[in-house]
Write a structure and sequence with these properties.
Elements: E1 5-6, H1 16-26, H2 44-61, E2 67-72, H3 75-87, E3 93-98, H4 101-113, E4 116-121, E5 142-148, E6 150-151, E7 156-157, E8 168-171, E9 186-192, E10 203-208, H5 225-230, H6 240-256, H7 259-278, E11 297-300, H8 305-317, E12 320-321, E13 332-335, H9 342-356
Parallel strand pairs: 1-12, 3-4, 3-5, 5-8, 8-9
Antiparallel strand pairs: 2-10, 6-7, 9-10, 11-13
This protein binds pyridoxal-5'-phosphate.
Pyridoxal-5'-phosphate binds next to helix 3.
């Protein structure tokens, strides 16, 4: 089999070694006579896998002891609701930064649940930048400010995750553990696992313990953060396969050198693509203010739709897939998450140069 260069925005490409290990261990786990996904989630074998994944999340993220780690189903999307359901009860209001499509969705759900105001919004033709802290209008009584650290669809990144003067809640789905988390400024961080951390099936939530004291009795039990915190995310049957696979991906990230290396790679690999775009004399264009360009989702357009179609066909011939931009914005998008081999990014940069020069 030849592996595709897969630039999918999510689910993501995983390292081959992670897939091979899963394959080797799939039928029988640890001489138990069954697969891990057939074991009881209360078994000692599964519990070890579960605890190991959580410990690796703590080690990689550097989360302090007063931050709890929860593994929940429903993806990042369910957190759009769970966060305000749990944090806005008995509180005043929350501010939302809308820097793109995901921030807009998060705000829309929060507004159904409590008082959620727009603290900053990208205006005009399309999101091309994120705010700096002084541009965000924080109202009195703000319990938290919600930000999307990286807008996956528009390819815009928030470079400042500090300096807003109120506790932050951050959706970090598309740059999760590819950049440091500023623990002194955040109260809650969440994201779907399927972009940087593993396969789909769970959201990883980091939550400051003090927030677990907030009243939540009005909520059904699954929707309360306290339910999961008390049970170490084993209140009900967890997505065992996803957690197992994520644990392997996290171990791979640790072997590679951890979050600093993931960040350095994200910087270097995105620069490979942005350099080609910027050196192309306008053949490729990226609308984002260079200081706010995403390091994990590189968006670019070509001069015409005909050229874009030709580019996609040429890329497909070279084994490069999932480069079409989100249907809402068009153009191209190369998602280059933690698990993608650097060789894939290098191959794409070379193809882009050749295509622009008429050599391909
Ligand atoms: C993909 C994505 C989501 C949605 O994640 P699901 O796990 O599919 O619900 C939310 N926010 C951001 C920033 C994303 O990239």
């Amino acid at each position: 089999m030849s592996r595709a260069h897969n630039f999918c925005a999510g689910p993501c490409t995983l390292p081959l070694s992670v897939l091979e290990e899963l394959g080797e261990e799939m039928v029988e786990f640890d001489r138990s006579g069954m697969s891990l996904i057939e074991l009881s989630h209360r078994s000692t074998e599964y519990e070890a896998v579960h605890v190991d994944a959580i410990q690796r999340l703590r080690a990689l993220s550097g989360a302090p002891d007063e931050v709890e780690i929860l593994l929940l189903q429903g993806g990042a999307s369910l957190q759009f609701a769970m966060v305000p359901q749990n944090l806005l009860a008995g509180a005043d209001r929350a501010g939302y930064v809308i820097g793109g499509s995901w921030g807009r969705k998060a705000h829309a759900d929060a507004a159904l649940v409590g008082e959620a105001y727009v603290a900053w919004s990208a205006d005009g033709a399309g999101p091309t930048r994120m705010p700096t802290p002084d541009e965000v209008a924080i109202e009195d009584g703000t319990t938290y400010l919600h930000v999307t650290s990286n807008e996956t669809i528009e390819g815009v990144r928030m470079s400042d995750l500090a300096g807003y003067g109120v506790p932050l809640v951050a959706d970090m789905s598309s740059d999760y553990l590819s950049r440091p988390i500023p623990w002194e400024h955040v109260d809650l961080v969440y994201g779907g696992a399927q972009k940087n951390l593993g396969p789909a099936g769970l959201a990883v939530v980091f939550i400051r313990s003090a927030l677990l004291e907030r009243p939540a009795d009005h909520l059904p039990s699954y929707l309360r953060f306290t339910t999961h915190a008390k049970a170490n995310s084993l209140a009900n049957t967890p997505p065992m396969f996803s957690i197992w696979a994520m644990g392997k991906m996290l171990a791979w990230m640790q072997d590679q050198g951890g979050i600093e290396i993931m960040e350095k790679r994200a910087q270097e690999r995105s620069a490979l693509l942005y350099d080609v775009i910027d050196a192309s004399d306008g053949f490729y264009h990226n609308p984002v203010d260079p200081a706010h360009r995403s390091l994990t989702n590189v968006v670019f357009g070509l001069p015409s739709e005909t050229q874009e179609t030709a580019f996609l066909a040429r890329a497909a011939k070279a084994g490069m897939v999932n480069l079409k931009g989100h249907r809402s914005v068009g153009g191209m998008r190369a998602s280059i998450y933690n698990g993608l081999p650097t060789a894939s990014v290098e191959a794409l940069a070379a193809l882009m140069s050749d295509f622009a020069a008429g050599r391909s």
